[in-house]
Amino acid sequence: MANSSAAANLEDVPSVDLMNELLRRMKCSTKPDKRLILIGPPGSGKGTQSPIIKDEYCLCHLATGDMLRAAVAAKTPLGLKAKEAMDKGELVSDDLVVGIIDEAIKKPSCQKGFILDGFPRTEVQAQKLDETLAKHGVKVDKVLNFAIDDAILEERITGRWIHPSSGRTYHTKFAPPKTPGVDDVTGEPLIQRKDDTAGVLKSRLEAFHKQTEPVIRYYSQKGLVADLHAEKPPKEVSAEVQKVLSS
Q1: Helix ranges, the chain (H)
Q2: Domain boundaries, given as residue ranges, for the chain
Q3: In angstroms, what is the C-alpha Rg of the chain?
Q4: What is the pLDDT of residue 1?
Q5: In angstroms, how far is the first alpha carbon of the chain from the final one?
Q6: pLDDT lower than 50: segments of the chain
Q7: Active-site residue among 34, 46, 81, 128?
Q8: Tens digit of each residue's pLDDT (9 = 90 or more) over 91-115
Q9: Can you tell me the distance from the alpha carbon of 238 to that of 235, in angstroms, rounded to the nearest whole number?
Q10: Is residue 112 flagged as an active site residue?
Q11: How many CB atoms lie within 10 A of CB 139?
């Protein structure tokens, strides 16, 4: 360990955790590097699949929204710039977001590659990302497109109900509560998230299609896009992902 405080911190890590991390790294060393982008509308199942892919291929998960918040909280130079833009009510520039991704991929946890979620949203962002990766001598390997019909998404999302205090989720069609509208355990009323209504979903989907279609086109021209049948049950989608990534 180059710096003594990092070494001191390791002394406080339980042996079992250190062993597990070593075993994980040994297992990971045989895995191929993967740099993946996940694209899909809200409710398409990206959130279900990304932790599975992350563990299977030892990748780091880069959710740009979370990374921006973390950079702002840590007061990194890029975080301070991002905060300045946010405080003025401006959008954080593409260069700043790419800069934060650039910093993240240097970490040991991103050594085998990454899953990018929520970025790039535009063709310009895709080009800037490619330029940055080229500096590291790497490139995007695959773009997983969680393709799903808007009507199926509407049924998936507008049927979701939540028990606010426990986070238990139900679905009127796929996982209904025993008694309509109330939590199975406490009997308290269920609520629907503001974002889960048909009106909100419609505008989110319109924005998604408008923004991301050029991105999918951009990567299709490079032969990197794999269209997944995201309407299938999660296990079947996982099997599809596995097939795409092992080819």
Answers
A1: 4-11, 15-29, 46-57, 64-73, 77-87, 94-104, 123-135, 150-158, 198-220, 234-246
A2: 24-150+199-246
A3: 20
A4: 42
A5: 37
A6: 1-2, 4
A7: 46
A8: 889 999 999 999 999 988 898 999 9
A9: 5
A10: no
A11: 12
Q: Could you say which of 27, 193, 202, 222 is catalytic?
A: 193
Known active-site residue 25: no
CA distance 106 to 26: 19
Instruction: Yes or no: say if 115 and 60 are a contact pair by the CB < 8 Å rule.
Output: yes
- Amino acid at position 53, single letter: I
- Could you read off the pLDDT of 214-243 as tens digits, one per residue? 999 999 999 999 999 999 999 999 999 999
Please tell me which residue in 112, 128, 142, 160 is annotated as part of the active site. 160
Task: Give CA–CA dist 217/127, Å, rounded.
Answer: 12
**Inter-axis angle of helices 46-57 and 234-246, to 10 degrees?**
40
Identify whether the C-beta of residue 170 lies closer than 8 Å to the C-beta of residue 196: no
Asked whether 51 and 61 are in contact (CB, 8 A), the reply is: yes
CATH number for the domain formed by residue range(s) 24-150+199-246:
3.40.50.300
Tell me what pLDDT residue 4 has. Answer: 47
